[in-house]
Write a structure and sequence with these properties.
Layout lengths: L3 E4 L5 H8 L8 E3 L4 E8 L2 E9 L13 E3 L7 H9 L1 E6 L1 E8 L2 E8 L7 E10 L2 E10 L10 E3 L1 E2 L4 H6 L1 H7 L8 E4 L10
Parallel strand pairs: 4-10, 5-10
Antiparallel strand pairs: 1-2, 1-7, 3-4, 6-9, 7-8, 8-13, 9-10, 9-12, 10-11
Length: 197
């Protein structure tokens, strides 16, 4: 499950370089479902950013947006099948959030790659929904670095996998079954209550 992620250009030179190429308005900071976000799309032999809305419309255009697709079953689902085959994208982030138990209550954790540059790329799908392009994030079973917090996680792509995920259906099929790299996490501090007295 991935219900929110971060896109903070100040944390990554790589992400900053991508965002400088984006045409159109998009959200940065903490990203919520239905926000306009940059994704990397096929552009000939290259990848280029484009703004999309995060989330496919709910079934029949009603209810909550569908923001995730299970990598294990996406090919079997009519909503995602054509996207898996021909409309794959990469969602650039600087981390994602998950809520997990800690001392009897839910705590918010931010997951990111170890290292100084916080660029973290997620495998995504896109579709044209009523004349507007929308995207979803693929999820997979949690790896050991995530399993203590949640049993699912986004399908994380390493830098050298981005082009093959988007350009090659055969490579994409293999990546759908690959275990994501190890991540580190930090607990997000709850907002402080400010006293007016």
């Amino acid at each position: 499950m991935c219900g929110r992620y971060s896109l903070s250009p100040g944390e990554s030179r790589e992400i900053m370089d991508i965002l400088r190429q984006v045409q159109g308005d998009f959200k940065t900071g903490e990203i919520f479902p239905a926000d306009p976000v940059p994704v990397l799309m096929e552009a000939g032999e290259e990848l280029a950013p484009e703004v999309m809305v995060w989330g496919y419309p709910g079934v029949g255009g009603k209810g909550r947006s569908i923001i995730n697709a299970r990598s294990e079953t996406a090919l079997e689902r009519p909503m995602f099948r054509q996207s898996v085959l021909a409309r794959r994208c990469v969602i650039p982030t600087t981390g994602f959030y998950e809520w997990g138990p800690a001392g009897g209550q839910k705590r918010k954790y931010r997951f990111q790659l170890p290292g100084r540059d916080r660029a973290l790329y997620l495998a995504g799908l896109w579709n044209d929904c009523g004349g507007r392009r929308r995207c979803v994030i693929l999820t997979t079973a949690a790896n050991p670095s995530m399993a203590g917090i949640h049993d699912r996680m986004p399908l994380v792509l390493e830098r050298e996998q981005l082009a093959e995920w988007v350009h090659s259906p055969q490579a994409a099929g293999e990546l759908l079954r690959r275990t994501p790299p190890a991540l580190e996490h930090v607990e997000e501090e709850p907002p402080r209550q400010l006293s007016l007295f």
